[in-house]
Design a protein that fits this description.
Layout: E1 5-10, H1 14-22, E2 27-35, H2 44-48, E3 55-62, H3 69-77, E4 87-88, E5 91-92, E6 99-102, H4 105-121, E7 131-134, E8 138-140, H5 148-151, H6 153-160, H7 164-172
Parallel strand pairs: 6-7
Antiparallel strand pairs: 1-3, 1-6, 2-3, 2-8, 4-5
Length: 179
């Protein structure tokens, strides 16, 4: 196996961000966790209570020989409402804000170019507000939050029914690829 790389994406509830990446060839792991805050090793309850400044995110370890970072960014866009800066769907607040956390100049260039293409495509009536920020320390969430879609399918389905699935079907089903 070739050397792996990582990518971190925040797009609302991390429970809903795992499955779209987990099912792709070349993905080694998808870990739910927290990043971008001021507390070391925060708990889910602290983040949910808006006490730490973190946002829920997923850290993806991938094999770039099998799937590119650009492909991951494309998958990311198709899971989010990139016009909503203060949460995603039923999940409101800064701990659910959409952010692409980059760990290299190459990742930044790819993410910024993709965002510009998405804005230029005029798929949305509002501006693309998803932030692109430098990677911050990432803290894995507690075990019960990992692979939630597989371990808690009923609750996961309820979360998806909170607007994400409908939005994806409406806005992204026929959307052209932005990369």
């Amino acid at each position: 196996m070739s050397a792996t790389e990582t990518a971190i994406f925040a797009g609302g509830c991390f429970w809903c961000m795992v499955q779209p990446f987990d099912s792709q060839p070349g993905i080694v792991s998808v870990v739910s966790g927290f990043t971008g805050g001021h507390t070391v090793n925060p708990t889910y309850q602290q983040v949910k209570a808006h006490q730490t400044g973190h946002t829920e995110a997923v850290k993806i370890t991938f094999d770039p020989q099998q799937i590119s970072y650009a492909d991951l960014v494309e998958i990311y866009w198709h899971q989010t409402d990139p016009t909503d800066a203060m949460g995603q769907f039923q999940d409101r607040g800064d701990n659910y804000r959409p952010v692409i956390f980059v760990n290299s100049p190459e990742q930044r260039a790819i993410a910024e170019a993709s965002k510009a293409k998405l804005q230029a495509a005029e798929l949305f009536d509002k501006p693309i507000v998803t932030k692109i920020e430098d990677e911050k320390p990432f803290y894995p969430a507690e075990a019960e939050h990992q692979r939630f879609y597989k371990n808690n399918p009923v609750v996961y389905a309820e979360q998806e029914a909170g607007g994400r699935a409908d939005f994806i079907a409406e806005k992204w089903a026929q959307a052209p690829k932005v990369d």
